[in-house]
Amino acid sequence: MYAIVRAGAKQQKVAVGDVIEIDPTGAIVGDTLTLPVVLVVDGEKVTATKLDKASVTAEVVGASKGPKIVIQKYKNKTGYKKRQGHRQKYTQVKVTDISL
Question: Strand 45-47 to strand 55-75: parallel, antiparallel, or no bridges (unpaired)?
């Protein structure tokens, strides 16, 4: 059994026991989150409607960071160049339950 959940602006496929990275939520380690469900697949049965009662429960494991991205800007013949870095922050959660 797996589900497609919406976490922030992204959708992710999750099953019980999976550890996923979602946008920062401000929750501390050990908190329980409920993620909204978009689709549930249980064997051959696919449920995409009437999911207002369905939920995915996840426990916050910790915080993490994504890969470093280097942004470089350059304009020819003007002496302008700029270098900037970015590293996205994430919250790691472990899926504990999928209920319909």
Answer: unpaired
Quickly list DSSP for 10-47. Answer: EEEEEETT-EEEES---PPTT-EEEEPEEEEEETTEEE
The CA-CA-CA angle for residues 7, 12, 18, to 5°, reads 100
In the prediction, which pLDDT does 64 show?
Answer: 95
Our measurement of the distance from residue 86's CA atom to the centroid of its chain's CA atoms, rounded to an integer in Å, reads 18
Answer whether 0.85 is exceeded by the pTM: no
The total of other beta-carbon atoms located within 10 Å of residue 73's CB is 9
What are the domain boundaries of the chain? 2-99
